[in-house]
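User: Can you help me understand a structure? I only have the sequence.
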Amino acid sequence: MVNQNPASQSSNAIVRAIHRHYSDTNYIRSDQTIEREKFLLFNIPFNRWAMFPTAFIFQAICGSLYAWSVFNDPIDSHIYGSITNPTTGKSTPVAHNAPVTFYIAVGCFGLSAALNGPWLERHGPKLAAIIGATVFFLGNMVAAIGIYTRIIALLYFGYGVLGGAGLGLCYISPVSALQKWFPDRRGLAAGFAVCGFGAGSIILAKIPQPLTAAVGLPLTFVVLGCAYFAAMLVCAFVFRVPPPNFQVNGMDMYRNRVDKSGDPESNSTEKAVQDYKDPNAKMPLSTAIFSKEYRIMYIMFFGNSIAGLVFLSRLANIIKDIFAKDEATAATIVAINGGFNLGGRLFFSTVSDRLGRKNSFFVMLLSQVVILASLPTIMEKRVYWAFLLVIWILTACYGGGFGCIPAFLCDMFGPSNIGALHGIILTAWSLAGVGGGLLFTEIYNHLLASGFTIKDPNVYSTNLRWVLGVACVGFLFLLFVGTHIHDRLLPRVKGEFARLRVFGRLVRIGSFGVRFLSKDDEDKEWDAYEEKRRAEDQAAAPRTAPEVGYS
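Assistant: Let's start by predicting it. Here is the structure, written out as tokens:
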């Protein structure tokens, strides 16, 4: 059915502007630009595989955000001073305000990705990457000034607002381009791009400490900012989207099979029906954003992200406080955990090309639910090896969500919308990080004030209850993501409000209860639907390519 969005007819200029922004994703290039982008440098032909290493490096720099915790104590000590324990000789900052920078950056990261996604699709990944890198560079410079002048607000604005906004635009730029270049390997392309983000948190976390010792804390941000900016600019000039006639392994950018002439294969009336029932059709962005499937996927992704953001971020403290390990052991475990984050992004996204995106999320979310339910017992009994085992699996599933989601969105809504949809869904990650982090901290501090100690597992297991609840909600919503075309387009029957598939059979849920549809009945309904749409096409002819819409 065709969705009519009343926003386009609104008398409010702001509403109309927002509608236009999220409706137009056409990237118009001149013939000269298309010809120029056939070459990487001088007369060296461009090869799509060149995007892999450059996207990895680009995302690794974006992943430096995850290494922010190494700056917390040095910044707080520099701005507010520190107290030295005469027994241990260890210095402790007087105040602990630097971690707020990370939460601001995460919030601006998601907001920037959501707002700039349509703009990215209209202007291409190269320009988006250059602008994002420039804003991130400026953020580092302002942060350096804030640290030098000991003004925490400048640090918040520099690294938090500018840095986070720049990284949000940078993050989605290579992911969007890779999904268009690799219709035959969407999962692998998405996973390889975003696993760089995980790698950055491991590699770049080792640089600030020796650099600070050599040049001082303010100049550390100047040196890193300049180095990041130079590397990101080099990578950005490799980013581009395929030419209009692009095809690979017998398919075009939309995964339509093409004949030897490069035209999509057609079969008269059947192709006419396929044009509007194919989930990879050129769906308007506004239609995709307001579709039921996208809303469900947003909640699903939120559920997959919550544990990794609010629980795993405190892994070092848990290792030291609950299991009585030393600082060096905790640091080693956190580094290994980062490797599982990276590996999960690449493993699950690659496997999803064979297993399917929904099935991959099924495995990841179900694993998280089981692990979160068992963690309180493991921590209470202090079974260290079991804790490490389940935490590393949990981390791999958390990372796998980031690896699979771009390809999942591309499968569901087409490559033309991937930049915007990926950007918007990242706000679920931001909400989980900011809102979940603040809630976790509030409950944690309340329990400590109530008499619990940091070595009591209850300060974590109490929080795990609501984290488990959110993960369960994400898992339940996943079941209702309609990846089968029948699930998405078959008209709803009277009283129906939800549907899902159980072992391949369509299940309707409504005021009539739960109703399983036989394969024969489903085929009959689909045949009737096709016949009705074919008749509507003939009655409306001549007609341009119809919009795909979902109720």
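Now, to help you interpret it: The longest strand covers residues 496-502. Residues 57 and 196 are 6 Å apart (CA to CA). Let me know which part you'd like to focus on.
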